[in-house]
Amino acid sequence: MTAPNTPPVVSRREWLAAIDTLRVREKAHTREGDAIAAARRRLPMTEVDPSTPLAGGDGEVPLIDVFEGRTQLFVSYHMWHDGHSAADQCEGCTFFTGQVRELSYLHQRDVTFAVFCQGSFEESDRYRRFMGWEMPWYSVPAESHERLLAGRHFGMKAAYLRDGDRVFETYWATGRGVEPMAPSYGILDMTVHGRQETWEDSPPGWPQPYETRGQQFRKNGRPTAQWPRITAGHDDDLHGTPSRTGGSGCCP
């Protein structure tokens, strides 16, 4: 007898046979992903002004300098709520941005990773330091929004190519298109209870406590990833203002 939220128990032989059956679909999924990536590499591109200004730790920086001499740039556009506490910052962007930590493998392939944050640099950079993130961090001034976002919104991810002194945007995605940045989701997808989110197709009785309006990235009133920093005694007071109640749910 097994609990209602666990799979049936079978012999190892039956279990291996079931996995072998699923493996056929997994391999087809992998090959389709490869084919989509091949099509992505063949997309056209559009030119972006290389002098577009950004704000960094050393003041104003043109977009082309963010490449750090490399030919490719991947940007995470991080939502920001000026004037709000760390607890009230975007839980979705915190989830995705915070999982990109080891950059050397990207650098090896001539790719720079950077975060372009909404709002003021001073506030958002303090948040970066509170979270313990070490990736390159910039804020996008209002004058650069149209040149970089072109009617889109923060929360997206974009890829760029540098050809000498010219810069081109080659790809962008938002919503679930940014999930490759989150290995936690990939790991959860291989567990028996999955992501435990209400939209998933799971057997009856499977735990699904998380909706998908920001709650899945929050715990006890703040983005989940903040709790280890609070426990370690790190300062999360960005500007001395009180916290709002509940999550913003502003990212996918």
What does this structure look like?
- The chain is α+β, with helices and mostly antiparallel strands and 252 residues long.
- Helix content is 29%, strand content 19%.
- The chain is built from eight helices and ten strands.
- It has helices spanning 12-41, 63-66, 91-97, 104-108, 121-131, 145-149, 183-189, 227-231, and strands at 46-48, 53-56, 59-62, 72-78, 111-117, 137-139, 157-163, 166-173, 218-219, 222-223.
- The chain has a six-stranded mixed sheet with strand order 1-8-7-4-5-6. A two-stranded antiparallel sheet has the order 2-3. Strands 9-10 form a two-stranded antiparallel sheet.
- A hairpin with a 2-residue loop joins strand 2 and strand 3 (59-62).
- The longest helix has 30 residues, at 12-41.
- The relative contact order is 0.18.
- Mean pLDDT is 92; it is low at 240-252.
Descriptive tags:
single chain; 252 residues; alpha+beta; 6-stranded mixed sheet; 29% helix; disordered C terminus
* SS content category: alpha+beta
Number of strands: 10
Unreliable runs:
240-252
Distance between the termini: 39 Å
Shape summary: globular
Could you estimate the helical fraction of the residues in percent?
A: 25-40%
Q: Mind summarizing the main beta sheet? A: 6 strands, mixed
Strand content: 15-25%
- Put simply, the count of helices is 8
Rg to the nearest angstrom?
21 Å
Spatial order of the strands forming the largest sheet? 1-8-7-4-5-6
Whole-number mean pLDDT: 92
